[in-house]
Design goal:
The complex is a heterodimer of chains A (about 150) and B (about 400).
Chain A lengths: L5 H8 L12 E7 L4 E10 L2 E10 L2 H14 L4 H6 L2 H7 L12 H18 L26
Antiparallel strand pairs in A: 1-2, 2-3
Chain B lengths: L3 E2 L10 H7 L15 H21 L6 E4 L2 H15 L6 E5 L4 H12 L3 E5 L9 H7 L4 E5 L13 H11 L2 E5 L11 H4 L3 E5 L10 E5 L14 H4 L7 H39 L3 E3 L10 E6 L4 H10 L2 E2 L15 H5 L4 H4 L2 E5 L6 H20 L20
Parallel strand pairs in B: 1-11, 3-4, 3-5, 5-6, 6-7
Antiparallel strand pairs in B: 2-8, 7-8, 9-10, 10-12
Classes of the chains: A alpha+beta (about 150), B alpha/beta (about 400).
The complex binds pyridoxal-5'-phosphate.
Pyridoxal-5'-phosphate binds next to α3 of chain B.
Chain lengths: ~150, ~400
C-alpha cells in the first residue's frame, strides 16, 4: 500500500525516541518550516559516546521516519562514529525511500551534525567529520537517487 | 476498512444512474454519430440529448456546447483559441494568480510566444479586486480569463461584475467553471459570459469528458485539426459513452442543485465546528462567504500536511494538500501563496472537499481520527503555541 514500505510506515506511526532530553548535553536543529521540514535533536553524551538521543520533527512521513531510525542508529556510537553516518545509511536502514523523498532523510544527517558541532564547540573538541561544517550554510549533500536493496 | 472520501474536488465517483445510461453506448449502441445509417443516427440522438442537458445546466443553447476531452482541453482551447483569433486586435491577456495549471501553464506558453499576461492578485479570501482588474485593462487586452470558483480554497469570484466590465470594454471573458459546476447556479446568458469550461468528473460523471461553452456568434480558432465533429469546431470521433454520462450527470446536478447546496453547506459547517471544538490552533484558509459548499481548507498549525495525509490515508480518510497536482511536486501551493499565507502555514494546510455521498457519520468518524492524528503529530513537533513556526530560523534547506 502507498508510497512507503512497511518499515518506513512503522517508524512513521510509532517513531522511536521522540521528545526532548532534559539537561541535554547537545541540541541541534536543522531545516525550517519555511522549507517544509525541520528537525530538532537532543543528545546525552558521556565520554564521547552518545548515550541517549531524542528528536522532534516537523515534516513529511519520510522526514519523521528517518529522524526515528537516525536516533536509533546513533545511540551507543562515539561522536566520531555518529559523524560518519550519512542520510544514505538511514535510507538503507529504512529499506529504501522513494527517489523524490530521499532528500528528506538529509534533514536527520544535518541535525545530528549540528548537535555534535555545538557539543564540540562547547567542549573545544576537534572532530574529524566536522571540518568545514557550518550549520547555517546551505545544504550541500547529494541526493542519492538510486534505491538499493 | 472503512473509507471516507473527502476529496470530491479532485474527482467524484460516477453515480449509478449515470453509469447505467452510459453502458449501452459501449456495446449495443456503439455507433459513430457521423454514420448515416440507423446505428449512427441513434448515437447522434444521444449526443444531442447530452448536449441539451449540459446546455441546460448552464443556461446555454445546445449549439453553444462543444464537447472536449475534459476541463484541461476546454481551458487550453479557450485561451489559445482566443489568442490566435484575436491577435491582430492585441496581445494582452488578464488572468489571476490562482488559476488551475491548465490555465496558468497555457498562459506561460503564450508569454513565450509574445503575449503579455497580467496575473491578478487575490486577497486573503481568495478573491480578486475589480479595481485591479479595471486598472489592468489596456487597449491591447483581448481576453479576461478568471476562474468561477477555485479548486483549493473554493473562493467564488464576482463573475457577474467581471463579465460586465469585460463587455463594456469589448473584451472576451472566459471562466473556468470546472469546480463551480453543480455547486453554484450558473447561467451564462444572465451573467454575460463568452466562454466557459466545464468537466464531467467533478459532477459524478466520467473522467476524460468536458465541454467548452462558446457564446453564439463567437468564433475562436480550433485547437485540433481533423474531422468535422462538434459543428466543425472540435475534431475527433466523439467519446459517446463519456458524453452520455456527462449529460446524465448534468441533468442530475441540475435537479439536485438546491438540495445539494443546502445539505453540503450544512455538513461542511458542522465539520468545521466540530474540528474547532476538538482541535486548538486550526485556521481556515479563505473566507466563509463566497465559498463552494463542500470546501474546507484548514491549517493544522505545527504539523506538516503531507504527514497528515499519510496518517489519514492509513485510517481510510482521503484528503489532499494544496491541490491534488501539487502533492506530487512538493512545492507549496501557489494559491495559498497568492492569498498571502506564510509558507510554513501552507505546508500545514489540508484541503477537505465534501460531496453527495458524505454523511454526518463520516464526518464524526473523520473528526475523531483527525483529532488523534493531530495530537500525535503535534506531540513530536518542535513547534507549539510558545514556539511558533514564524519565529523559527531561516531556511537553510535544499533549495
Ligand atoms: C479549476 C479546474 N480547472 C481545470 C481542471 C482540469 O479538468 P480536467 O481534469 O477535466 O482536465 C480542474 C481539475 O482538476 C480544476 O479543478
Amino acid at each position: 500500500m502507498g508510497m512507503y514500505n512497511e518499515k518506513v510506515m512503522e517508524h512513521f506511526t510509532n517513531p522511536k525516541n521522540t521528545g526532548v532530553i532534559e539537561n541535554a548535553d547537545a541540541v541541534g536543529t536543522y531545516g525550517s518550516p519555511v522549507c517544509g521540514d525541520m528537525m530538532e535533536i537532543s543528545l546525552k553524551v558521556e565520554n564521547n559516546v552518545i548515550t541517549d538521543a531524542k528528536f522532534r520533527t516537523f515534516g513529511c512521513g519520510s522526514a519523521i521516519a528517518s529522524s526515528s531510525v537516525a536516533t536509533e542508529m546513533i545511540k551507543g556510537r562515539t561522536l566520531e562514529d555518529a559523524l560518519k553516518l550519512t542520510n544514505q545509511n538511514f535510507v538503507d536502514e529504512l529499506g529504501g525511500l522513494p527517489g523524490a523523498k530521499i532528500h528528506c532523510s538529509v534533514l536527520a544527517e544535518q541535525a545530528i551534525k549540528t548537535a555534535i558541532y555545538m557539543y564540540a564547540k562547547e567542549h573545544g573538541l576537534e572532530l574529524p567529520g566536522l571540518e568545514g561544517f557550518d550549520p547555517d550554510s546551505e545544504f550541500d549533500h547529494e541526493d542519492g537517487e538510486e534505491d538499493e536493496s | 476498512m472503512r473509507e471516507i472520501y473527502l476529496d470530491y474536488s479532485a474527482t467524484t465517483p460516477v453515480k449509478q444512474e449515470v453509469l447505467t445510461e452510459m453502458l449501452p453506448y459501449f456495446t449495443g449502441k456503439f455507433g459513430n454519430p457521423s454514420s448515416l445509417y440507423q446505428k449512427g443516427y441513434e448515437a447522434k440522438e444521444a449526443l444531442s440529448l447530452a448536449r441539451a442537458r449540459v446546455a441546460e445546466l448552464i443556461g446555454a443553447l445546445e449549439k453553444e456546447i462543444y464537447f472536449t476531452s475534459g476541463g484541461t482541453e476546454a481551458d487550453n482551447w479557450a485561451v489559445v483559441g482566443t489568442a490566435k483569433s484575436r491577435k491582430s486586435k492585441g496581445n494582452h491577456i488578464i488572468t489571476t494568480k490562482i488559476e488551475h495549471h491548465a490555465l496558468l501553464h497555457t498562459c506561460k506558453q503564450l508569454e513565450k510566444e509574445g503575449f503579455d499576461v497580467t496575473y491578478l492578485d487575490v486577497d486573503k479570501s481568495g478573491l480578486i479586486s475589480l479595481k485591479q482588474l479595471k486598472d489592468s485593462i489596456t487597449d491591447k487586452t483581448i481576453l479576461i480569463s478568471i476562474m468561477y470558483a477555485n479548486n483549493e480554497v473554493g473562493s467564488i469570484q464576482p463573475v457577474r461584475e467581471i463579465a460586465s466590465i469585460a463587455k463594456e470594454k469589448g473584451i472576451l471573458f472566459h471562466s473556468d467553471a470546472v469546480q463551480a459546476l453543480g455547486n453554484v447556479p450558473i447561467n451564462v446568458k444572465d451573467l454575460g459570459i463568452d466562454l466557459l469550461s466545464v468537466s464531467a468528473h467533478k459532477i459524478y460523471g466520467p473522467k476524460g469528458v468536458g465541454a467548452l461553452y462558446v457564446r453564439k456568434g463567437l468564433t475562436i480558432t480550433n485547437l485540433l485539426q481533423g474531422g468535422g465533429q462538434e459543428y466543425k469546431r472540435r475534431a475527433g470521433t466523439e467519446n459517446l459513452p463519456g458524453i452520455v454520462g456527462f449529460g446524465k450527470a448534468a441533468q442530475l446536478a441540475g435537479e439536485n442543485l438546491d438540495n445539494h447546496i443546502t445539505t453540503i453547506t450544512e455538513l461542511r459547517n458542522y465539520f468545521l465546528a466540530e474540528i474547532q471544538k476538538r482541535i486548538p490552533d486550526v485556521d481556515v484558509n479563505g473566507g466563509m462567504v463566497h465559498r463552494l459548499p463542500g470546501n474546507l481548507n484548514l491549517v493544522f498549525n505545527y504539523v506538516e500536511g503531507e504527514a497528515m495525509i499519510l496518517y489519514m490515508d492509513m485510517k481510510g480518510i482521503y484528503a489532499s494538500t494544496g491541490s491534488a497536482c501539487s502533492s506530487a511536486s512538493f512545492s507549496a501551493s501557489h494559491v495559498l501563496a497568492a492569498m498571502g499565507l506564510p509558507v510554513e502555514k501552507a505546508y500545514s494546510s489540508v484541503r477537505f472537499t465534501l460531496g453527495d455521498f458524505t454523511t454526518k457519520d463520516d464526518i464524526d468518524f473523520a473528526v475523531n481520527e483527525i483529532t488523534m492524528i493531530v495530537e500525535k503529530l503535534r506531540s513530536i513537533s518542535p513547534f507549539d503555541k510558545e514556539h511558533d513556526m514564524e519565529t523559527a530560523q531561516n531556511c537553510n534547506c535544499p533549495a
